[in-house]
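The data are set out underneath:

___
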Amino acid sequence: MSKTIQVAPGVHQVPLGFVNAYLIETDGELSIFDAGFAVDRDDIAAAIREIGYEPSDLKRVVMSHNHVDHSDGAIGLRELTGARLLLSKLDGDQAAKGLAGHSEMNVKEGFEELVASQMTDPEFAAKMGGFGPPPTPITAFEVDAHLEPGSAVEGLGDSLVIAAPGHCKGQVAVLLKRDGGILLTGDAAVNFGFIGIAPVAEDLALAQESFEALAQHDFEVACFGHGEALISGASASFKAAVEA
């Protein structure tokens, strides 16, 4: 079974159950956006080989935010590949303290059953293991560089870090300014049969503001932390969701 789905030239979705990572090729260098859980390391290594690289070719792990389904795998990937770890300062400071997330999560009204079904999913429960709700105790780790909103991401060419707080205080999205625009949303947006904010967030109102801000950018492709990528007309879909 294939470990990857090419969603744009040089951008490969790596489905890891209910969460996605993305391998990104830029001028011959390989990066990954989000790290999954520690138990996903072998699947990520297999995905790297599937697109013609070796794990040692991975140069950096760019994390949208520090929740365990997106950052728990970071330490293992650095040990396996020597890759640099990149995270926003807010979330990087939490990681250094041995914490993931900043405060308890709130459920969006009307989505209680969806969230409950996800929480009781056997795969989700197995991967979450002993992890509790945010702020979640984790093995502390230091990042190698911070993702600064308004700046480019090292190694990703013409790109833009966009502050996208709400789901997580230090969350960022990344816009790759190539091939019509490729937006890597993290959990600032989801595709659960609808395009919108994640149904759980530290601050739901702020999450909606961040989603609406993302919709102001132009991009052809949207790559979600949860759900299938949109491979055409993505920013129009975001704008339609805002206006609905």
Q: What stands out?
A: The chain has one domain: 5-243. The helical segments are 41-50, 68-71, 74-81, 89-96, 112-119, 122-128, 204-214, 234-243.
